Every structure is written in structure tokens, then in C-alpha cells.
């Protein structure tokens, strides 16, 4: 475990093994981390939260936040990551780290959460664009799993470049 003062608060980082890495589109990929049994409580989370990853991008140590696409019932940490620049840290993460490698991952954080209401009838409408869909995926999976009476509608937009 390592502790860092990150964004003004003491943050706990643990080394987690990359269990799966998959290219989703030309500029997005997903990463799943294996959570050892002794760290399961540290990585319990609510839908909509994020983790920070600390890694080397060239000669620079980088800490970036990434929203989880996994839902709490899945008992894993899965992230959706967008590559914004050919020189950016996300591309370094994609190109230089493989399944089986370990990275420093913070314990989950963030307040973009919803209160579960499994006994109520409710309708939820979600709006997302681009990589901003990642926390919404976490929420929707969690709601579908835990709230059989809830109806969900998702409006999503993506940018496509035509050459």
C-alpha cells in the first residue's frame, strides 16, 4: 500500500494486477483489475464512483482518474478509458501495460452515486456523450440488477469523424 496526498486528500493506493485489457474502438479501451481477497473491502464501491491509477508515462509519473464501468455486484474494477492525444498518458497506459502487469490503483472515491430504491416503481432517464458514458454504465447495470421495478432510458451520443 502507498499513500499520497492527491487532490488535497490522503489517498490509499494498492498494486492490482491487470486481469483483462481490450481495445474497444480506435481511441478507447477497457481495463479490468484482479482484486485479491485481502483487498475486497478496500475496493468495495458504489455505482458511479472512480479510481485513480498511478503509472509511468515515459519519464513522468502520472496519476489519472477513471470512472468504473463495472457494477458493485460484479466484484471487479473495470474501467473505460479514452485516448485523447497521441502523446497523452492514456495512450502510454494502453501501449506499455499488458495483462498480468501491476499498477497502483486508488481505493474508490466520488459522489456521483444514486440511492437504490428496489421497492419503488420509478423511471430513470440517462444522458451521456462519448467516454462520459462510463459511470452511467455502472449505474444502469447496478439498477437493472437491484431494482426490478425501475425503467431505464438512455440517450447517448458519439462523435464519428468521416474521412
Automatic annotation (TrEMBL):
Any idea where the FAD-binding FR-type domain is? 11-115
Keywords from UniProt, A to Z, are:
2Fe-2S, FAD, Flavoprotein, Iron, Iron-sulfur, Metal-binding, Oxidoreductase
Q: Which co-factor is required?
A: FAD
Which PROSITE patterns does its entry note?
FAD_FR
Question: InterPro entries annotated for this entry?
Answer: Cbr1-like_FAD-bd_dom, FAD-bd_FR_type, FNR_nucleotide-bd, MRET, Riboflavin_synthase-like_b-brl
Do the record's keywords include Iron-sulfur? yes
Q: Which domain of life is it from?
A: Bacteria
Q: Name one GO molecular function term.
A: oxidoreductase activity
Protein's recorded name: FAD-binding oxidoreductase
Is Nucleotide-binding among this UniProt entry's keywords? no
User: Where does this protein come from, organism-wise?
Assistant: Chryseobacterium endophyticum
By its UniProt entry, which Pfam families does this protein fall under? FAD_binding_6
